[in-house]
Amino acid sequence: MSASSPTGAARDFAAVDLGASSGRVMLARAGGGELSLREAHRFANRPVRVLGTLHWDVLALWDGVLTGLRAAGREAGGPLAGVGIDSWAVDYGLLDASGALLGNPVHYRDGRTDGVAAQVAGVLPPRELYAATGLQELPFNTVYQLVAARGSAQLAAAHRLLLIPDLMAYWLTGRAGTELTNASTTQLIDPRTRTWSPVVAEALGIDQGLFPALRQPGDPAGELTPEVLAETGLAGPVPVWAVASHDTASAVVGVPASGERFAYIATGTWSLAGLELDAPVLSQESRRANFTNELGVDGTVRYLRNIMGLWLLQECLREWERTGTPYELEPLLRDAARAEPLRSVVDAGDPEFIAPGDMPGRIARACARTGQPEPRDAAETVRCVLDSLALAHRVTVREAQRLSGRSVDTVHVVGGGARNELLCQLTADACGLPVVAGPAEAAALGNVLVQARAAGVLGGGLAELRGLLRATAPLRHHEPMGDAGAWDRAAARISGGREVGR
Fold it and tell me: Is it true that the peptide bond before 439 is cis, omega within 30 degrees of 0?
């Protein structure tokens, strides 16, 4: 079925999209050849450190969700055909036997997992862990968080473990489930069988009984409880749909690609760059290149690498504000565009940049260690960040093609970074490929598309859903320019020639 042959009249949906720095509830209208999106409510997502541990303020997020649903209902002026929730990956809440939350979830940037990957490797060698799960080794993966939490009072008392979007869905409906695309980021799922890996759980003593049954994107997750209906003023029944609840999985649904020969870069706090495949790539070469095989909608695999992303820029801006020299982003980007290109670059995949705090200083020190000039001002620091991200995008897109055997002719940049014209142009220059930028709200749009199809408003597969995106979303096109060799020379400066993004 084509996007021009919708299965039903347009209806209203609410997409709850929780990011690492902010959350929002978007009101969407989909069906009848229409797809529109507007923000009903946005709220901050600020972590809180208590007694040395960094937590998510999950109750503040819950309040933001309820406030957003109330606003969406008012704006819709009629019943909602569904609610879907997506969020960042790996983090979770623990519930006791009565369903009560056992403390605020721990933030993935907390230091409790420091050194845990090495402990796990002593029990389950990296080659075996990758063969079982196909997941990129990142120090904050759920499997490492659970090993770090071993012996804690909370884990001992836990009856259920719910990933963040599943926790929100549980509070909305009273029904617990584990959505598959997000579960695939835990490093406990076998990407071939698309079920839990007994190899990992048994080796590490992780009780898979903590996880409720798996849900597929598009499965019903329940209906809003009477309490939630009263709190939000919505008229029931309002179904809650399991969408691709990992925000990157929803963002990939929201890539307006035509055909299969495309790479995507979902940009925000992180840049997640890769390809959409039909099967995982589980070779040891893929493991050594630190690529991950996460699961997507309709049986797809998101073959990608995590890159530090706009976190580098966000942390620079926070540091400058903290030290009394705040900058407005748009003028700073204009100044960065005029700065000397590729004067200095850093490895945007270096774990040194994961933690918060003094990002400009760390970037300057990384430049000095590799014999490059330190940025002299804020504009040069920002240019270094954006050149470095584009360089990491380039290496990742090229390696993904080589390791998977799938060639691409277009790069799609979606998410918040799609608004950054300088980053998009630099990515086109670095990759030597045309870049299509947008939609910026790809995760929310992917969330809505899965809901609308589940509700019977839209039909077809990913190709048809993406056709509707191409017909309705504003997109910008960037053609590659400049000297491709300059990017090769810049890459060679980092760590004695080690490829950036590794």
Answer: yes
Dihedral sign for Cα atoms in the order 119, 125, 129, 132? negative
What's the rounded Cα separation, in Å, for the pair 229 and 480?
Answer: 51
Q: Give pLDDT tens digits for 63-109.
A: 999 999 999 999 999 999 999 999 999 999 999 999 999 999 999 99
Alpha-carbon span 114 to 111, nearest angstrom? 5
Whether the CB-CB separation of 52 and 473 falls below 8 Å is answered with no
Amino acid 403 reads: L
pLDDT digit string, tens, across residues 191-239: 999 999 999 999 999 999 999 999 999 999 999 999 999 999 999 999 9
Nearest-angstrom CA–CA distance, 96 and 91: 17
Q: Are 32 and 3 in contact (CB under 8 A)?
A: no
Angle at 355 between CA 322 and CA 496, to 5 degrees: 110
Q: Which residues contact 392 (CB under 8 A, 6 or more apart)?
A: 271, 273, 307, 308, 347, 348, 349, 500, 501
3-state secondary structure of 102: coil
- Of the residues 12, 17, 247, 347, only one is catalytic, namely 247
Q: Structure pTM?
A: 0.92
Measured CA to CA, the distance from residue 162 to residue 84 in angstroms comes to 16
Question: Are the C-beta atoms of 250 and 467 separated by less than 8 Å?
Answer: no
User: Position 16: which residue type?
Assistant: V
Distance CA 371, CA 386 (A): 19
Do you find a cis peptide bond into 237, omega within 30 degrees of 0? yes
With a CB cutoff of 8 Å and minimum separation 6, the contacts of 348 are 271, 307, 308, 309, 312, 388, 389, 391, 392, 500, 501
The amino acid occupying position 478 is: H
Gyration radius (Cα) of the chain, Å: 22
Burial tier of 409 (Cβ tally within 10 Å: 0-12, 13-18, 19+) = exposed
CB neighbour list of residue 402: distance below 8 Å, 6 or more residues apart: none
Residue 110 known to be catalytic: no
Query: Which residue is it, tokens 């589980």?
Result: 282
What residue has token string 């299969």? 260
Residue type, 189: I
Cβ neighbours of 334 (radius 10 Å): 11
Tell me the residue type at 106. Answer: V
